[in-house]
């Protein structure tokens, strides 16, 4: 599905990503975990091509992110966060637009019902709370029908009921063969959904099966505050 080889990215003279190799199979949910400010969003933007890597290659279903860009993007969906939605639109208008551009099989009504957005489907997104915006954001992912879904902090601002709903929908997408890479600065947000977790530290990644090790202990080892600091 997704293959990243030797991906490096510099911001000015600062090296942010260093020769990253990773892959995601069809029907796999992978968590990308690190504290804020360590490069998670930068990695997602490099994978999508919103930022151009210094070197390296990204392919999706065999399609190169640069030389075969149009077909590459057809199989991928990524919105950086719910604050980047078209605020003058309603959920119905936004979902209709995404469906027309990506050609997903689900109808607007099916997505509205699945995400329980019927009561505000014709209101402008500019009036929405963060939790409502997150529902619209996930709706855009669902209706795209894309094979690879990249999420940046998808559970941000959600109440426990909505987190349970999102977890269920992610599981359904995985069962349908969709691949998901979701970033978070909180390990607990991804371990219930992801079968594999990638930690990003000092511009490099390490991958662990969720069931194979104590992920919280590994997170504390990599990112915990040193005891001698206080």
UniProtKB/TrEMBL annotation:
GO terms for molecular function: ATP binding. Residues 2-227 form the ABC transporter domain. SUPFAM superfamilies: P-loop containing nucleoside triphosphate hydrolases. It comes from the Bacteria. This is ATP-binding cassette domain-containing protein. Keywords: ATP-binding, Nucleotide-binding, Transport. PANTHER family: ABC TRANSPORTER ATP-BINDING PROTEIN ALBC-RELATED. It comes from Lacticaseibacillus jixianensis. It holds the Pfam family ABC_tran.
